[in-house]
Amino acid sequence: MTPNSCAIVGAAETTDLGKIPDMGQIQLHADAALNALADCGLSIKDIDGVATAGHSPQELAHYLGIVPSWVDGTSVGGCSYMLHVRHAVAALEAGYCNTVLITHGESGRSRTGFLSRPMFASQFDAQFEAPFGVSIPPTRFTLPVMRMMKDTGLTEEHLAMVAVVQREWASHHPRASFRDPITVDDVLNSKMIAYPFRKLMCCLVTDGGGALILTRADRAKDFPTKPVYIRGVGESVETPVVSQMKDLTSSAAFRVSGKKAFETAGITHADVDHLMIYDAFAHLPIYGLEDLGFVGRGEAGPFIAEGNTRPGGKLPMNTNGGGLSYMHSGMYGMYALQESVRQMRGISPAQVEGAKLSVCHGVGGMFGASGTVVMTNEA
Questions:
Q1: Is 160 part of a structural domain of the chain?
Q2: Total number of domains in the chain
Q3: Using one digit for the tens of pLDDT, what is the confidence trace for 210-266?
Q4: In this predicted structure, what is the pLDDT of residue 371?
Q5: Same domain (yes/no): 47, 144
Q6: Does a structural domain hold residue 36?
Q7: Residue 122 maps to a domain
Q8: CATH number at residue 259
Q9: Are 287 and 359 members of one domain?
Q10: Which range (47-51, 154-158, 366-370) has the least confidence?
């Protein structure tokens, strides 16, 4: 891709977030899409590219009344939307379409109109993990995080501090699910889910969605919103099952997607003003900081504990409160992208003063996939 060749001109979440029992999954997609269109002054008839995950792109396009000239149904977990951004940029650069709508909608809590189908269908999982009771994210993620604790000195207190710092950021967001301050002791004394994960180290289960609208940069200044340019992108996959990771203390997909995004953007770590790292569980920002190269091996836990990522820190991270405190309807990547856009527009309730470049990094499944997007507000 060419840096800054395309831009996000529309971005919005669903009208409500958290508990939305009166809207089904496809309605959440539509609500987010209509809000994003209103954000940038477009209508459905202006959209000729559609991408979504966790739901049929055909059904979404039909429901919205779109017959697109480009479509992407890549669904590799919560980072799918980062991959959609990359694919949309490629499609826009190639002239396959002019205006792309990327949507997310999920009734994770209320399960209203929920599409019941396996999101991560895998023969490997059916053979090597599910028969042994490893069936849900907390039980799957315990294996890598315990190896990291053994090999690098990561502690339960470090994991707890991730939740504490992100709650600090969430306190600035009126739409965050949880805003009250918490302490390390609060986290460690919360209900044990699967060692070492306590309840406050685990993501929320909510209803909601979001949508993005992208177009080529030469059209971006025609919109009422401040363009957020796509500076760099990267993606990768490793394995559908945690037990087959080459190194339980590092994600190959993280390393590849991050490296590619930084290379295409032509940036260094010192250029990054704002960082979003997918945090379905408290260990993921720790893996992200190390695999993206912001800190060395075994340094991420202490880095967060020292206050470097909290408000006023040198590397503001997960400024919406993340999946631990803001929102997590199941596929969190869209909410991370939304906060990066807000930061680059200068309108986040937890705005980082003077931020010009944001890195938004996601995980899909249990370290199965990864997508990284570098955004900037400078053309």
A1: yes
A2: 2
A3: 999 999 999 999 999 999 999 999 999 999 888 889 999 999 999 999 999 999 999
A4: 98
A5: no
A6: yes
A7: no
A8: 3.40.47.10
A9: yes
A10: 366-370
Nearest to 78 by CA among 59, 53, 107, 61: 53
Q: Same domain for 102 and 137?
A: no
Token couple for 366: 């249990």
The model's pTM is 0.96
Domain identity same for 153 and 57:
no
Domain of 41? 6-117+206-230
pLDDT tens digits for range 7-43 = 999 999 999 999 999 999 999 999 999 999 999 999 9
With both helix axes pointing from N to C terminus, report the angle between 252-265 and 284-291 in degrees, rounded to the nearest 10: 50
111 and 190 together in one domain: no
pLDDT given at position 113:
84
| 3-state secondary structure string across the chain | CCCCCEEEEEEEECCCCECCCCCCHHHHHHHHHHHHHHHHCCCHHHCCEEEECCCCHHHHHHHHCCCCCEEECCCCCCCHHHHHHHHHHHHHHHCCCCEEEEEEEEECCCCCCCCCCCCCCCHHHHHHCHHHCCCCHHHHHHHHHHHHHHHHCCCHHHHHHHHHHHHHHHCCCCCCCCCCCCCHHHHHCCCEEECCEEHHHECCCCEEEEEEEEEEHHHHCCCCCCCEEEEEEEEEECCCCHHHCCCCCCCHHHHHHHHHHHHHHCCCHHHCCEEEECCCECCHHHHHHHHCCCCCCCCHHHHHHCCCCCCCCCCCECCCCHHHHCCCCCCCHHHHHHHHHHHHHCCCCCCCCCCCEEEEEEEECCCCEEEEEEEECCC
Identify whether residues 219 and 320 lie together within a single domain. no
